[in-house]
Amino acid sequence: MTSASQPVLLVEGLKTQFATRAGIVKAVDDVSFSIERGQIMGLVGESGSGKSMTGYSLIGLIDPPGQVVAGRLRLAPRTGEVLDLRRLSPRALQGVRGNRIAMIFQDPMMTLNPVLRIDTQMIEAVRAHHRVSERVARERAAAALAKVGIPSPHERLLAYPHQFSGGMRQRVAIAIALLNEPDLIIADEPTTALDVTVQGQILAQMQGLCRASGTALIWISHDLSVVAGLADTVSVMYAGRIVEQGPVAEVLDRPRHPYTRGLIASAPSRNPRGRPLQQIPGMTPSLLALPQGCAFQARCASANAVCRNEPPLVALDGRRLRCFHPTPLPSSCTIAN
User: What residues does the ABC transporter domain cover (predicted)?
Assistant: First the structure.
């Protein structure tokens, strides 16, 4: 049986690589974290930092030539057993996806079939994992739509995806993720294309649903302001590695890694109107040609000869940090919620 203190998900040393003609692409390189029941973890970083690839690796959605080459992925669902996700057969992993672990994609049409009614898709999602009647599955589907704020859920079950707005389609995708009361939801920037009002509503609903149900949530995003108001903890990724992680208030209010500081300084929410945004100099290095040692050294003002060595991930001030030159940020430099 699982203990109350055991994390829902434990990830240790996850490595995902792509074998190409040009060489090995280390998309996810030695990533480790854990997430507790009912906890929300933000996974942030620039495009290409490995955020989405980390999420896909957890549920076996890496297509060839990519593969998870190392790491321990342990899921402790409510049912009591502990599952080693990397050792599961393809059939067993399929039984976990959509049931114990659900995923919400950035584009809801990656979840929804445009030629099938919503009820057909949701009932199928329930009956794929549970032996229940169509009537019971339909009631569960209507209840899930109601949870995410869709009015007249029984009537909307009869609609097709194109009859919903973008925000409503995303709510349907979230409802499908909630159908089987998963232990973990992985949300890959699901509100990026939505307007601010709809985004705020969905964020509030997701936060409330996780608190009420005990479902853990990994929220993948490049928007630090969203993560600041939603998450309990945050992991900052750069070039396939986590460079800083800890409680969201500590990391975003007092970042110690130069990359985290650069992300916060470039956030529009803390820059006065009319003033040019601060930028991190340079570009993210190619994952095919990473520099020796710290991948951020070419863009870091504090880099010196010691940065040619590989910085370990160490505990510091209640967080974990991968940097030889951790520096505090003035308390006035914070992310606005």
Answer: 9-264
